[in-house]
Amino acid sequence: MSLPDLPLDELRSYQPRLASPADAAGFWARTLADAAGFPVAATFERVATGLRLVDTFDVCFAGYGGHPIRGWLHLPAARPASQPAGPLPCVVQYIGYGGGRGLAHENVFWAVAGYAHFIMDTRGQGAAGSVGDTPDPEPAGPSHPGFMTRGILDPATYYYRRLYVDAVRAVDAARSHDRVDGTRIVVAGGSQGGGLSLAVAGLRDDLSGVLADVPYLSHFRRAISVAERGPYLEIARYLKADRRRTDAVLRTLDYFDVAALVTAATAPALFSVALQDDICPPSTVYAAYNAYGGPRQIVEYPFNDHEGGEGFQRQAQLEWLADLLGAGHA
Q1: Given 67, 121, 277, 329, which residue is catalytic?
Q2: Which of 3, 58, 97, 182 would staple 175 via disulfide (CB 3.0–4.6 Å)?
């Protein structure tokens, strides 16, 4: 994308009128109530990683439909002198599109920073960039290759209904460990992981913070028309092949648009946006940012594509979390 999809001054005030279904709140209330019928029943099995400064646990918990969802819990092996004893604030991380939880030693950033670090595996994904260990047992029906159109003709069968519920319940799984301070949970992720973080922020009111980098799953109706590459195009190609399904597909997507869900969010949030992003166009990020119901900040990267701020954004997140939770995590 050689230029932003909208001028920057328009992006900063962009608040599209979203086609949120009248029964969306009821749909999600019923979905989460059904999920609550399955105990989270998280298990934590310590694994050897060869890392001396991080303790790692292989996690399994009950997600959507009681399906087993894998994850990792990383904990600092030794506390810094500045950090008081007691449970740790926790960063619950969701993974970008196509990736899984990875190998046990691969992603320990937040544990090294002194936090509990819970990584949720992504059902059915995990063959692009990082491996996964969680199948999706639900039938998909006719779909375009990928995950974006699985079960898309009905919100009750859509793939992301299952994934959003998994993400909500990952917070409960992390909270159940005795070294995690359940009153200080931050959800985080980039791209799909950023979108999942925003979905969770809109579906529960007990988070301490949200870190959403170049978030996906926002303003679907615009995204599938203006994105130049990436998984939004799976939906466009599906509709190109089967023109009969447009109304049903758009109706389903309206239930899962995080730009609508985040109006109910209350936790402080730090967003990032890349103004040359042709996978998650900046207007779709600002649609969620400007609709966000809680305190919010955004970091703009004018010359970056979907890689966003990378290490620069991690530095901004470290500083933001230290201010939010206290430098010593007190």
Answers
A1: 277
A2: 182
